[in-house]
Fold each of these.
Amino acid sequence: MNNGALKDIRVVEMGQLLAGPFCGQLLGDMGADVIKVEPPVTGDPMREWGQGAEKVQWEVIARNKRSVSANLRVAEGQALVKRLIAHADVLVENFKPGTLEKWGLGPDVLLAEFPHLIIARMSGYGQTGPYSDRAGFGGIGEAMGGWRYIVGEPDRPPSRMGVSIGDTLTATYGCMGVLAALHVKEKTGKGQVIDTALYESVLQVMEGLVPEYDRMGLIRERSGSILKGIAPSNVYSCSDGEFMIGANKDSLWKRLAVAMDREELGDDPRYATHLARGENQDELDALINDWTRTLTMDEVDALMIEHSIPAGRVYRAPDMLADPHFQAREAIIEVETERFGPLKMQSSFPKFSATPSSVRRPAPSVVGQHNAEVYGELLGLGADELAALTEKGVI
């Protein structure tokens, strides 16, 4: 049953790979009816993405969606999708700027006919500016937005995060924009365009990187597993694995010193204040590491809990599946998928007390799986019309 916060909202998702589809996933998890438009036959390349022999990433990003196919490169396909958009509250797209306009589906055309429509646009550099017509993927946005330069070890080239954070940040900001625009629409009845760029989405989470340079000429550098000047906050070696401890606050440091049976270090002028710990970060980390390596992860964990210090193991997927807290909060759920049967994946998030999000339908296994259902339901097309459109390669 759909009790989600957006259960009365219909979204048409036109886009491929990650940013647009992840925005669609977020909206779908919150209850929206998401109709995904895919190219006939080939579909979204995301169907073939992911690690391992079986490509299961699609099962997450395409959940709660219905798939229809339409060839947007031909006039008949464009007209068909335009009729579909007429029944939507939100259009999500992440094509290169100018593509919708080339297809006769630009915001000027759509908002003139459907003034209620909210159009969420995701691109590398945004819809305006001298770079707007350039191709842009998430990694490029991460580089331009400042993320890549500061990630990795100081003596090595810039590294990357193990997931496509630029795309998912852009999708999340796009989703946030949709929710705000829905609020405005409720008051005014009018839709609007939301312009989100990969590089600007990354820029938003760069904390003090720009003002630090503007004020002091300071350029943040790669610092490996630490944030420079924030100590102690690092991954330390235990006798049987790695353990994260975050005691980068005066009171927390004093508690950690007690847990280490080195209470005198809590008031040691080298470590007693935030600034002093930052100046002596390397030696402090070495001191803590010398202590943790004499203990098991369970022993350190027990001490951290006893002294109320933020800490924990560095999890991989097996650890998440075995953890009782993940289980109690249903952070990971099992979805009955069409291609792989029962499949564990992250649950919908955030959690709502009155209008819970949920995974109500598995990802569509076939491109255009819901053509008859959607085109019949919303546009009134019959079997003969659908067959003709299929024969011509329109759907």
Amino acid sequence: MSSQPYETTATTIAIVLAGGASSRLGGTDKTRVQVAGATTLERVLRSAAADQRIVVGPAGDDGAALAHSHVARFVLEDPPRSGPLAALARGVAEIPGAEGTSADSDSGATVLVLGGDMPLLRAETLAALASTSASEQKVAALAGSDGHVQYLCAAWPLARLRAALGALEQPDGGWANLSLRRLYEQLATDELLTRAAAGAEGADIDTPDALEAVRQAAGPRIALAQIEVSEDVEFRQGTVRSAVAEAAAAGAQLVLLPEATLTPFGTDLRAVADGHHASFEQLIQELADEHRLVVVAGSFTPADGDRVHNTVIARGPADEPGAVRADYRKIHLFDAYGARESETVAPGDELVLIDLGGARLGIATCYDVRFPEQFTALARRGAQAILLPLAWADGPGKSDQLRLLLQARALDSTTVVLAADQAPPAQYAGTAARGIGQSAAIGPLGRIRQELGREPGLLLVDLDLAEVREARAALPVLEHGVPLPRD
């Protein structure tokens, strides 16, 4: 299972400026303060989709671990604290072939210039900046709503960056005490492209107030695990174990597995619910305890007669105060397109939400996505994001419908919709719903942030609660709703 869903250029190098202690934070190294369970520097490194990562700054106590887990190396500018431009030049000097390299040989390389104190940067945004810079051969930078360019979140063609640095180098002092503004002043008007920041992704930590605002905005990291659900019990359990371990290694605080992870549709749901739900629930709890995260997965539990409940179980580490433990029973049953889910599944009748890392998360399942009132009801109960496990049925137009419905539900509720579908088996020829892939993260104004194809994969999403607040201020549909007249 791949955890890298972002397309990058052929050669993308991330240079992260991490200069150390900040006087405005009482001498604290602002790249090592904790934000939502990780240091600011670690959050930047894990968002930087790049072939190489170079950190210009002190390695500190965690440098070896960061270098290993993010394939990065630490270097120091010489002399120390000689300014951001000198630090950037030091990072560029570390790129292979820096000495005497021609501009032509640099034409395929792109450099992400990043601040080590920007903990809410998004991997999909950085990948988009790098892709734009590579295709247009221009500088692509993040910009605030006021048009202010964030100098430490930009992608540069390597040759252009070297040329701009060279034009500013001082014969006796290198680049010492020169600001990054001087670098951008080297660009012609048509050389700089900007991308508007969403939520707090452009925030940096310069003051205690800025740090507090970032911490208020930073929600949990959520992994969407798109797995193939095998009919073989042992193989299926191995797939679940691997997906949860990979999510945990990537820093996720919650991993969302698909609907029907216990057993795929087209099998004897009641027999599996009676015989295997208890052991599956135990497995989910063991994985939550082992990896110290919340695991959310689709199961089936016994109901009336021969039917089952299509149940999503959410389990967090059992020894944590207020440990997450919740069960959601699918409310809307898929009696559509010739299927009759209600013959084997009994409906639930309760909305379910969980709290994690300062965020409130609602839970819905697959066919529920066609019913906007459930999503707005969850939002009115405080949900900022909605977890949506799927086993989407394939067929003509179903891919387009899923994408449209996910975007519409996000807009209806101004929540982040996080959908994890099954990856369809390559040789499956049956009629039961086995997924189409297309797991996705949708922003609260309906923009697709990330999306997978049909193959197994892992999407990593850092919730930005400021984005939800801004969306609801701009589009207050939850406040404007009124009861409609009945017949």
Amino acid sequence: MSVVIIGTLDTKAAEIGFAGNVLEAQGVDVRVVDAGVMGEPGPEVEPETTASEVADAAGTTLEYLREEADRGEAMEAMGEGAAEIVRRLHGEGILDGVLGLGGSGNTSIATAAMRALPVGVPKVMVSTMASGDTEPYVGARDVTMMYSVADIEGLNQLSRRIISNAALAMVGMVTNESNVDAGERPTVAVTMFGVTTPCVQTARERLEEMGYEVIVFHATGTGGRAMESLVEEGVVDGVLDVTTTEWADELVGGVLSAGPDRLEAAGDEGIPQVVSTGALDMVNFGPRDSVPEEFEGRQFHVHNPQVTLMRTTPEENAELGEIIAEKLNAATGPTALALPLEGVSAIDVAGEDFYDPEADEALFDALRSSLDEDVELLEVETDINDAAFAETLVETLDGYMRAAGRAP
């Protein structure tokens, strides 16, 4: 087993050397990738991949980065280079896990490399940044972050313990057989939100009864991005995109956007997809007092103390319909759009806070008028969480999967 350690040897050679010693004492081979830019590597470690080679892999040179002395540019370049290095090592079968340790600079570099690897490859980052907002470092990958507590500057009783724990955790990941059944069942990705949970639960249970492997993604921005990345990697055979709410946040300015590429991966890969309008009645914010002033006067629903929902307007819904139609029209594989005509979420039904037939109809009308004929349009006289709606989604996707030779 081989673990790659990514670190800045000009400032963290002793700490990286210590981590390598812990790994080697457990019988794990170690390859060190030097991501340092400004100084020469310390004497404690001889890297298998030099900082110059990392810069070269990014299409630049170490000399140039030193001359420019632009920290941001250097960190970005070394992150790109480190990503290219670990992709190559993994492809050659000589990388079983990646360990990183450092402050904000090497955290940026090492996690950029980690995010370039497939889900399932062990990734552990010991970082001074792990107690804050880790989304920029983790992204949509299974990066494990461990807070260093103190700065990673010298070896002491605290840093030795934490670095040792991280190294031993990596040893456990790469040397023990997980006995997880990867399975050979076709895999379906499904998107869910709290307000679409009944629909997804019914659909998941039905799909599993049919023999599909089902992976559910929480549509919280990173969830949507994670699903799309796994589709691009070929992990997913079909998509049941029940909950497209992330597009409401992208359009209006909420906190759970998945970015402008959401709803593209399945279409680009040509795999079967059935899409719905789950939770497009809402834009997500944090606590009520965190909602930007520009939205004062809008309709809100406090989901919990940390989550405030804002009702989308008819105008926003009409624009959402046009955007979603454009994404689906570009699909190269079998695609259907299912409309729950009596409500797109648990709180968009008669008697609930976000019940607004006018706003829903603006969404549906825009979709009807903008969809190409190649996209199958299903209109169901239920709300999204009715079991009959879930059955329609499942039957449609299963039909596509069978026609494509992807069914169990």
